[in-house]
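Possible race condition, two jobs.
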Amino acid sequence: MMGPVSLTLVVAALVYWPALGRFGLSHSEGHRAIPGWAMLEDGFSLLPRLFEHLYLRKPPGMPWAVGAMSWLLGTTEFAARSVSALASTLAALITCVVACAWFGRRAGAVAGVAFCLTPLFLYPGRSAEIEALNNLFTLLSMLGIIHVALSPKVRPLAVPAAMCAVLAMLLVKGPAGLPCTLAALVAAAMVRRTSTSAASTLRAVIIVAVSLLGFGMYLIGTQRAWEATGEPAITEPPSHFLWNPARIAEILTLPLVALASALPQGAALPLSAMSPPLRGLADTRARAVRLACLLSLLAYAAVGVANPRYAMPALSILPLCCGIVAAQWSTSPFTPLRTRRRLAGVTWVSLVVVLLGTWGHAAWIEYRRGWRTSGRDAGIALASHLPDGAVVHAFELIDVRPEVAWYAQQAARASGRQVRFLWDPYPGVFGRTAPPALPPSGHFLLLRTDAGRRDQYPPEVPEYQNAGLLDRLGPPVAVGRVHQFEFMLYRVP
């Protein structure tokens, strides 16, 4: 019979790895993968670039990971998405191993498989998005804090390992997972047993403090490197995702909505609190895990997060609650042996059913993502209108769907032509007040022409129309569409 680790590994392999490279990049995958591929060509640095423009919306952790994986596997969609698949697989294995160590082998098997089959983690684990990698390091930081703060004896490597996990989390997505780390610290302090010395809690505090210091040094280094370039950069302040009075209802209901989004695993949090308690240190750790998850969700609501997707790091520890429930019911004297055997049979049947449902869900999501929304076909079609040596200036289309430009570049390169795309912000961005200007003669201008969302940048087409520049461009060279976005390609006379 398969052990917990082997079972978790098999389920993770079946869920996260098949056919990762079947579809082109879509949605915001290009923002994560293309800077990593650029680093692979130009060298790794603190300052990621997207089509030769500084791109500092996120720290460079994900581009570094994509670049490293692409160095091993090639510059492909499979390599870019394998970062998330590997992160999700490791997160499931870590959940399994920790549950085995803390609550027993049965809990480890349930927790590891529960992570693999959590519907909320499916798309992030099979895409070149940033969430899966951030979830991995957030989970590691929470478990590391709880382990250091609650274990009577801590191995020497546990403290630096926890520091590395917290620092890696910050380098992947900045402070997005920090509420979870702080919640784990508070939860461990609240449930600390008398047998655990106060020095253990102090060590956990030092872990967080030193990690934040290291991240602060990174921010200083990035700022100095940015200033040395003298170039503007695309940035995104955290306040963009926080308090918005128009979304007060979503903010107040965030914890409940987030748990509902993780169903059926989301039910494990209240169920474990109502189930018979475990014994000794195992029960203390179980209470810390539950409290850390709950406090994390409350912390996200407190800072004004309205979208449950951004609370996903708090739910990374939720599958461990599934293992806790399994340990509670399997060890409780109130659960007869006959009932335990029935529960084991139901668990195996449920595993097969949920696995089949997961595959169907993945197929439907990837159908919508790959066949209907990827910019690969639009980019290949665009490449046919670009001669050798063409220089294309664009902003909004690259801002929403950068893979169009990347696929156009690759298609041109495959036919022996060199095409250069420049992410060129138009006036009005970065506080500019100068009127728009056309690129040099002979260059191309790629304008997004749909109405779209204008909540971050002013519309670019009216800017050029009001300055009388579109009339000077003449008819477009090409017209295209990717998902709901439309664009036109002009050649500057």
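Job #2 (started ~2 s after job #1):
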Amino acid sequence: MKPTETHVFPDGIAGPDVSFDGGDLDCGNGLLLLIRKHIDPMARGQLLEILSTEISVDEDLPAWCRLTSNELVSFRKVGRQRSFVIAKGKLAERGQAPAPVVGARHSGGAHVQPQAPRTSIAAPSVPSMSVMGIGSWPRPRWMVEAMHSYVEGKLDEAAFHETANDSVRLVAAAQERAGAGVVTDGEQRRDSYASFVATRLDNCQLIPLTDLLPLVDDPEKFERELRALDVPAADVRHPAVLGRISRSRPLARHEADFLRTLTGKPIKVALPGPYLLTRTMWMECLNERAYESREALAQDIVTALRAELKDLLDAGVSLVQFDEPVLSEVVFSGAKSGPSFMCGALSESREPAHELAFARDLVNAVTEGSPRERIALHVCRGNWTPDESVALAGDYRPLVDTLASMRVGAYLLEMCTPRAGELEILKALPDDARIGIGVVNQKCAHAEPLEEVGARIDRAIDLFGKDRLLFHPDCGFATFADNPICSTISAEEKLRVIVQAVDRAR
């Protein structure tokens, strides 16, 4: 039933701006998703009314408000029916003009990214000994601000992409100056290397990590993991599934189309791999209404990634890279009894042999029928903080058989850090596959000496020969938009020193 009493609102406010009924959902079983769906598009200071009949919400919702810095204006209860009124941010902000987003230019709502014709475009091949970034590049402050405004519904899509185009121009120019042989767009349109898919897939939504606290078995441990991010957890968002997912528009084709206008060099686009997305997006308490199991979710993820892979190859992308860093978590952390934050993989995992076989089958299902030589796989051990001591450690022995059984043409692997073990282990990978060697550590603030990088390259040539090799940093320079691992200056310097060392080796 509806509440029979009326709230007493501040002077000049007749009632809530938005209202919805959450029924008997609790905060750990979908209510926070509904709150986020309604509150994100609202202006700061506007009021959201939440109706609920669930008793646990009495304590959980005020705690959520404190955690997310939203103001609980009032709370009433009539019988089992509860009514909460929350101000987005602070009620005192109501009516204040939003701060302008630097770099954003509105264009009357017209989309600045026209649909590219779906004809196949010839892709230049990637030469041996090519130098490339793994994917992400530090975003300018104004790009991060535009990203947050876009996700929160305060910046239209046209203005967001115009701002992102400016940022991609800077990234591409930096890679050209450094002499990179393969160019990426630096993932400038993405909040992170993986969770961005929630803004592109149907029935998926980005929610702040703080909203996930009620969903984990050990909130205190989870909070400690969030603090390792060195960035407010409310600024980092996680994909949540609201129903059966599907791909009605590209995930990254628009990124490739624009990047191709900026360079004549081979381009690379990185995508989260199917195992990573399954581990990231499967949370039983959220997904049980849409999927009976994570295997069912994985099938829809594979379908979406297969379509995206074909689209990118048709768009002239020379190399499509699938990121599967959570494979390291499987073998170096063992079977999990609860969620892990490693690379955003919050769902539970089973024993390692099962998980590795599952990951292998998912990757092969995505790549089956596509040209293997244009597909790469990237693996690392975590890239959310420059603190080497908190990242996973272990050599590739427990992974190499699984990697070798995946239908990919290149392996782009973290190898510079001592945490990655011996290079010789990679001799077990297929002889007809390319080997990408990480020869600088993005976690180090300064570029490594040329002699040091050159020695790593010479060692790789001794083991694999020049024809099979590609070179890159261990991982991306800014896996999470709000938490870059290094500066733009350092990123360019690190690529440049790799190029100089490769030139000497040639």
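The chain has a mean pLDDT of 86.
Logs attached separately.
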